[in-house]
Structure formats: structure tokens, C-alpha cells
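On to our target:
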Amino acid sequence: MIEPSIKEHILPWIDPEKVIIPTAIVLHWWEEPISKGDIEFLESLWAERQLASQFAVLTDGTIYRLTPHENSYGRHAKCANNSAIGIEIQGLGSEDLDNNPIQFNAVVSLTAYLKRKYEIEDEFRVEHEGDDEATHFYGITSHKNVDVYCSNANGKTDVHDEYLARVIEEV
């Protein structure tokens, strides 16, 4: 198993002792245009609410681990946090993500690595036990697919279906 080149930018509010057993990978986008920022900009967006995905992929293909461990608990997708690794992709919408093969290849490489390491299946499925803490996710999916299973869903739109399908196809 080849590990992609990963830099560290550990978010200071993450508890290094709190880890998950990942069974899913959730893809996100930054909700900001790519013209805004770098990894420090992403940290500033999340600092007040102490949000975190485990990884971020910048437009130049640089991959950052944002948590002390690959399987550290991060607050990135409400009811999926206990079972999913989050990958935050720099950009907003299909216009930012679809025309960047360097970034796309980095997302695929990272997703494939995590899939193999943690034996995560391709197909998205959910075991819903009633409350958010008991909901368990499996497979590779997007934030918008997870959001509909969470109480107080926010109507997330990331990432779009075509991008997700292309990632899964390449993995």
C-alpha cells in the first residue's frame, strides 16, 4: 500500500486521545471560492466552532493531515463523525473541482490509500439506530449524502454527484 505524500497541519483543538474506527470516507468542499486561502485560511474558518476533517486537499494537490492521527475524531459531518474520515477539498462547487486534474488525482490517491488501509467499502450504506450518535456510515460518500440522515440537517450540497462518482470509479 503506497501512502500518498501528506503534510501535517494539526489543528490545536483536536483531542489526540479520541479516535474512531473508520468505516466511511466523506468528501467535502470548503464552501469558499478557491481564490480564498490556504490551509491557514481553512483553519481560521473552523477555529471558532472547532470543526475538523482529518484531511484537506489543496488546489495544487497538496494533502494535509489536520488531526494527530488519520483516525482521530473530527467534527466534519454531524452524525458521521463517529465512523467517517473527512476529506476537505479546497474550492466551492463543480466549477472549482471539475477542472483541476492535479487536485482530483490527489483526492483519488488519498481516498484509495484510506480505503485500503481501513478496508472501507465502495458502496455507501447507513445503519440508522434512531439518534445521531447511533447512526453508522459505510463506504465512500459526500457530505450531502450524510447530511440527510442527521437530525437538524443543513441541506449540504457538497460534493456534487458527478465528482463523487468519478472518485469512486478511479479508486
About this structure: The longest helix spans residues 101-118. Helices lie at 39-47, 94-97, 101-118, 143-147, 161-170.
